[in-house]
Amino acid sequence: MPAGLQCWDASGNLVVDITSRLPRFVGSAPVGPGNTSSITNANLALGTVWYAFQPQQIWGFQNMDVSRPIFSVSGSTISWTYSAGATTRNMQIIGTVFFGVY
After folding, report:
1. I need a surface site. Which of 5, 7, 11, 67 has the fewest CB within 10 A?
2. What are the boundaries of each domain within the chain?
């Protein structure tokens, strides 16, 4: 059964048609040192995977060597690693990855 959103104006003209790629939120996972470096969810096989990373802390990274998580998707698994630090003051950005499918 098709799903989506369609809206018509007062004259009956179709003005919004979003029927082919509505995103569906599937879950979230903590990202950071000591956490798993991947998450597997069978629902990710049901469409095109999307993900968004939200850092736990936005400020406080000035004058520091910061490593960001680098994400990759393979089937129903989202994996992440951290870029290498340039100094001994390296700080890995921790946070949450939110994911779903279109």
Report:
1. 11
2. 21-101
